[in-house]
Amino acid sequence: MKKIFSKYWYAQSPPLNFDLKMKITTFLLFICMFQIHAETYSQKKKFNFNLKEVSVKEVLNKIESVSDFKFFVNTSEIDVSRKVTTLETKNETIDKVLSKLFKGTSIGYEIFNKQIILKTDNSNLINSIKNKGIAQKKIVIGKVSDKSGMPLAGVTVLVSGTKLGTYTDFDGKFKLELPPNSEKLMFSFVGFTTKEISLSDFTNLNNLEITLSEGMDSLEEVVVVGYGTQKRSEVSSAISSIEGEPLRNNLGNQTSFDRGLGGLVKGVFVTQGSGEPGTGVDIIIRGITSPFSGGNNNPLFVIDGVPFLTDPVYNAGGFTGALNVQNANPLQNINPEDIESIDVLKDASATAIYGSRGTNGVIIVNTKRGKKGEKSNVTFSSRVMFSTPVNTPDYLSTEEWKDNIDLMFRNSVDQLNNGSGYSPFYVQSYFRDWATVTRNSDGSYTYGGLNEDNYDDVNTNWVDEVYRNTAVSLQNNLSITGGTEKTTFTLSLGYLDQEGLLGKDEYDQYNTRFNLEHQINNYLKAGFTGSFSYSKNQSGHQNINGWLNTGILNFRPDVPVYDENGLLNRIENWYYGSTRIVPNPVGLTTLHDKQQKNFTNLGSAFLEAEVLKDLVVRADVNAARFTNSTSEFTPVSKVGTALSNGTILGTSYLSKLQTENSNVIVNLSANYNTTINDVHNIEALLGSAWDRNWVYRSTAGYRGFPDDDVLINASYAQEARPGSEAQFERGINSIFSRFSYNFDQKYFLTLNFRTDRSSRFGPGNQRGYFPSAAASWNITKESFMENIKPLSNLRLRAGYGRTGSNNIGDFAYLQFFNVASRDAGLYAGEQAVGLSGTLPNKEVKWETTDELNIGLDFSLFNYRVTGSVDWYDRKTRGALMKGFYPLESGATNYIQNFADVSNSGLEIDLNVDIFREKDFGWSVGFNYAHNDNVLDKLNTDGLTTSESFYFEEGRPVFHFKGYKTDGIFQEQSEIDALNNASPDGTYYSSLTSPGDLKYVDINGDGEITRDGDYVYLGASQPDFFGGFNTSIRYKNFQIGANFVYSVGGMTQITDASVIGFGQPHQNILREFTDSWTPDNRDARYPRTLVYGNFDNSTPSSDFKFDDTSYLRFQALQFQYSLPNSILNKLSLNKLAFTVTGNNLFTITDFRGVDPSSTGPAASRFARFTSGPYPISQTWSLGLNLNF
Q1: How far apart are CA 959 and CA 962, in angstroms?
Q2: From the record, what ranges are coiled-coil (predicted)?
Q3: Would you list the DSSP string of 159-199?
């Protein structure tokens, strides 16, 4: 019911100057006019009820909910709480329904324009109306805009205190018929401050102009949580949100949306290991919980309710061993233009309802959808992007390179004459190809300079030859949204044509998505969302990430790209006693024919029914299917490995990979949501989930083809190589629940519980239990806060919960068997069957993480200043990893719960609206995150020698050990003094000479040993990280900027090894020419040698590690929108032009290509840098059209 009141209502219209007869006549005529229309509707509208034990109020509410009738009641005369034993009607009119309802009572009724007034026999209501005049119908007409004057579509307009309302159309206009006694209207829209107006403040209700302000009241924004939504003001957990627009501005030419999260969401650390099109990133939320091989530290992604698997056991990333075929990133196929907003659930009180999938956080992606009452809305956007590689390596020219080789051999001959270093074999077989070195009769050597016959005069810059000067990309998107009062829809199409930075790299992508929701009747709602994406990634190289610089671009510069016949040049290279062919960089990056084709299908459907008042039952089915097909042809010109009479020894190779990953989740849930006495707000959720995942993977290899260009299908191969085929299936059955209560929007309590049963564990260990609780206190609701005017909002939050991980292979508790292949697999002439290298463990169980989170949200000065602070403490117990058996056991490893890991930290974000005017606005934002990671407990029996070097109790995971250095030895006398003081006569090595690194004797025993002087150097994770941004708006112009920073953390610079381990056939970075000589004693680097001082330059030391701190200007955007005066003439709603720059500059002391390519990833190798596929600086021109 819209209005049940305790005193009479009548229109407050000015009195008419009529006599009594005229008043009565006018009144009767007025009644008759309305009665004609009312009788028409009342005769057409029929009701079917079968109600038992209900109150009169409930019956009236029921009538209102299924018709246009509205009731007005004097509750001081009519008892609406009276119980009705039975009310049964079959296709009957309102008259018959009301006659049955009030049979045997003194209650009657009158109909006025679908408005029904209930009265008693002695009611004064009608007489009051006769005396005062009938209530005249009021209609209010208006328009809602933002501060810039842009109309807002889909704004909810409600009569305050009622559910009566409407929505603005695409022009921001609305029209609403007001019920009697309406005093105020409420305007609300996501991302804008809710505004209430008093109708008495307006003289003309036919031309209201309403302006909403952005971002002042974010507390009313809806946040998506597990299996539901909550208002921001009701959230007690650590949840961060971001709109789609700043995310898209952060991407540059990269279209995988996860790349844009860095610096925008507090506590989310993004490591982009490669700038290659189609590749993904590592995302760490609140530290590493699974540090060991195969550990999964990536969050769960939920796209429109459909989970995306990032489980390494099934992950579509990585390699397939010898085939060297890289898979693709499934998140790449989600079009960023479709994203409305992203909610990041971080603490266990929010993620526990996702159970085993929520340990590393949950990133919920909400796509754009139509709005009720919205006219069809067409949006077209297009942008063209121009990308150039950033921080490309600076290698030496030919003359500079020769000068460095000359120095390298000069130092090496000095080393020979000092009585240590190289064997005669090296000198005779290797030195002679590059320089003139003569052995004297007394055994000494004389250096005669470079052998000029082995050098050419050309100067080839391989960086320029391999990279595109400018990679041009084009992206187009089209979307159509709309809705009626009962149906909403969205259709979007997207296309991307992207050039990579290397010559043959091309990436094409097609996206489409459709969403439809329909309110079938007052009790039943249904919806469907479907999306399809196809992408094709073509390149001319194998996976080169990690060795682009040290394996390709450092090719000697004196070799022309092509020989006199126009063929790609190759060179012979003596390498440890053999001669091999080294193809040039252009060949390495163009001769392959590699194609990846990816298909992604997502679908979800739901049916929702309000079976009882406040009780909604929902069933939904979510399905995802990701298919990757990769084919890579390696021509013989690439794989040739040696020379024999001018003949290349090698063969062409074709490798194929097929991966299919399917996931189906069925959820059944019931949600009860009610309010008692206007202050007790209760919500209860109970549901179950059925989750199944199927993975299929096959590999095949073929070699020996007639040519490198035409006959390269598998059918032309001389030999089919052994392939592989694997199929996995796993499942989780779950029960989940949530109970939420708040008292008067002041005190909040949320309890979650989930239990998962996983097929990966054995009997007795399959089920995991994941409870959580969160509470919050809205302090500003307290009476003692009323006089603190500057404080708009103050909210204290606390939460505690448990999540888990089942990140191991399937059925780890069972023994697997392998069927051996080829001749080695035969036993007594029969195919042999043997045990798998991984033995079963029936005791392996869930890895669990408990987390405590305490947070504070605040807003000041009418929400001009908003922010939050969160402190957390996470304890991971029983981290899953492989343990290793002794080799004599015949097995290699088994799965066990081996380690405990802790993460604790602090997160802060702050946003300030400095100016908030109609024509001018300026806002700034800042976020900060710090995480302490400690390996609390470790069973070292489960570690390999290599892993024990990186993991130690009491230290961060992925830390580094090595020697400390104290500069470079300048004089031989200093070395001799240390050797003389050493117990065995050698401080470090007999090869140590002036120009070598000076290692520090940490334990003071007079000698450098690994056991005594290898110390903790640092960790890969940063000390703190985050971002800051600013946005300035002036009339139709807007400019925005975003910066990303990371402070602390370190990584190994593997290129630094070339100083003490030089290879003449390779070029070096200009950075390394600052090496020690007697004339350059202040050099940064030690002396350079030819395959030289292995003992001094190769050990791990702080010399080889760099601080990875950086500040990056990530994004800059200019936008101009045409004013409404022009748009109206063009019949457009919006026409905006944008210029966006990404990755504009980076301030860092890091010597590698990109400091953001390092970080606390799940693999220790991600911390090294020897040439990742570079990221790019991108400028784009864009257009956004809406009509």
Answers
A1: 10
A2: none
A3: ETTSS-EEE--TTSEEEEEEPTT--EEEEE-TTB--EEEEG
Name the β-bridge partners of 409: none
pLDDT of 844-881, one tens digit each?
Answer: 888 889 999 999 999 988 788 999 999 999 998 888 77
| Gap between the Cα atoms of 994 and 980, Å rounded | 16
DSSP state letters, 292-307: STT---SPEEEETTEE
Confidence check: pLDDT of 1094 > 80? no
Q: Are 842 and 337 in contact (CB under 8 A)?
A: no
- Strand 506-519 versus strand 487-499 pairing type: antiparallel
Neighbours of 143 (CB within 10 A): 18
Task: Tell me if 530 sits within 8 A of 602, measured CB to CB.
Answer: yes
Token look-up 């040049």 returns 569
Tens of pLDDT, residues 1163-1180: 433 344 456 677 889 999
Quick one: which H or E segment has residue 90? strand 83-92
Pair of tokens at residue 421: 């270093």
Q: Which residue has the tokens 């200043």?
A: 865
- The DSSP 8-state label assigned to residue 5 in this structure reads B
Q: Show the tokens assigned to 817.
A: 């068997």
In order, the DSSP letters of 20-39 are HHHHHHHHHHHHHHHHHHHH
Domains of the chain: 20-132 (3.55.50.30), 138-214 (2.60.40.1120), 300-370+385-390+465-963+1019-1060+1098-1186 (2.40.170.20)
Burial 35-73 (b: 16+ CB within 10 A, else e): beebeebbeebebebeeeebebbbbbbbbbeebebbbbb
Tell me the mean pLDDT in the region 320-345.
Answer: 65
Q: What is the DSSP string of 677-723?
A: TTTEEEEEEEEEEEEEEEEEEEEEEEE--S-SSSS-SGGG-SEEEEE
Distance CA(535)–CA(333), nearest Å, equals: 7
Q: 441-467, pLDDT tens digit by residue?
A: 888 888 899 988 888 889 999 888 888
Which structure tokens are listed for 26? 């006018």
Structure tokens at 505: 């790299």
Q: What is the DSSP string of 1046-1076?
A: EE--EEEEGGGGGTTSB-TTB--BGGGG-B-
**Overall size of the chain counted in residues:** 1187
Closest to 889 (Cα-Cα) out of 836, 824, 828: 836
Q: Give, rounded to a whole angstrom, the gap between the first and last alpha carbons of the chain.
A: 38
Sign of the C-alpha dihedral, residues 819, 821, 825, 826?
Answer: positive
CB atoms within 10 A of CB 609: 17
Does residue 548 sit in helix, strand or coil? helix
Pair of tokens at residue 683: 């919500």
Amino acid, res. 354? Y
The pLDDT assigned to 27 comes to 41
- The H or E element spanning position 1129 is helix 1124-1130
What the block records as the tokens of 67 is 């018709």
Alpha helices, DSSP H, located in 547-676: 548, 585-590, 636-639
Q: What are the structure tokens assigned to 549, written together?
A: 């610089």
Q: How many CB atoms lie within 10 A of CB 142?
A: 22
Distance CA 287, CA 317 (A): 21
Whole-prediction pTM value?
0.76
**Mean pLDDT across 323-348:** 70
pLDDT higher than 50, residue 312: no
Does 132 have pLDDT greater than 50? no
Rounded alpha-carbon distances, angstroms, from residue 1009 to 487, 962, 987, 1000, 1004 = 75, 11, 9, 10, 11
Q: Please answer whether residues 91 and 48 qualify as being in contact, where contact means their C-beta atoms are separated by less than 8 angstroms.
A: yes
